[in-house]
Amino acid sequence: MTISFEVADRIFQAPKSLLKPIKWRVAESKKGNEQFRRLECRVAVDGGVPRGVFFRIAVFPRSLARAMFQLECDLPSGRKHVPLYRLEVEPLSAHGNKLYGPDEINGAIFDAGETHEHVFYDSLKKDGTLRPNACEQARKVNVEIRDFATGLRYACDRINIVNPDEVPPPADQGTLL
């Protein structure tokens, strides 16, 4: 079971604030050989605190360029998350869009290292409902993102987070973007 368009739209459009604690943690990749830093915090939406709405950031210490910023929420039937927005700054792998959604992005291919963003509005089914992976389609970002602060500010502006200044820099990893 997925969330309704109305709920996703409300979460995406409403003013949001990040809730404390806002802390970086070290994590291992699925392969267990690469360390990265991640930040995950709950999000208040329009002054309320709905269950399961999160903002996530991942930065990668072996790269001076890669980062990911994501707004997501839990599905009603459990703890599985569905992303509503994702900004990928200089991703390691390429991304290929499916052949549905807005004509201008159908089948678009983004090379590894090409910054792009995913918004759930571009991945809706024909009947207007969300797909299980609500962020399959991507669009090019027409803003140059060269550092962590610019990426954070861009993502927070797009998803209407009002307190991005409360996100601390990724600490001892130095310049990441």
In one word, what is the shape?
globular
Number of domains: 1
Biggest sheet, in brief? Answer: 8 strands, antiparallel
| Overall pLDDT level | 88
Structure summary, number of beta strands: 10
Which H/E pattern describes the elements?
HEEEEEEEEEEH
Strand content: 25-35%
Rg, Cα atoms, Å:
16 Å
- The end-to-end span amounts to 37 Å
Please tally the helical runs, counting DSSP H or I stretches of 4 or more residues.
Answer: 2
What would you say this structure looks like, in words?
Helix content is 12%, strand content 30%. It is mainly beta. It has one domain. The strands form 2 sheets. Strands 1, 2, 3, 4, 5, 6, 9 and 10 form an 8-stranded antiparallel beta sheet that branches. A hairpin with a 7-residue loop joins strand 4 (53-59) and strand 5. The radius of gyration is 16 Å and the shape is globular.
Question: Topology of this protein?
Answer:
Layout: H1 5-13, E1 16-18, E2 24-28, E3 35-45, E4 53-59, E5 67-74, E6 81-89, E7 95-96, E8 109-110, E9 116-119, E10 139-140, H2 148-159
Antiparallel strand pairs: 1-3, 2-3, 3-4, 4-5, 5-6, 6-9, 7-8, 9-10
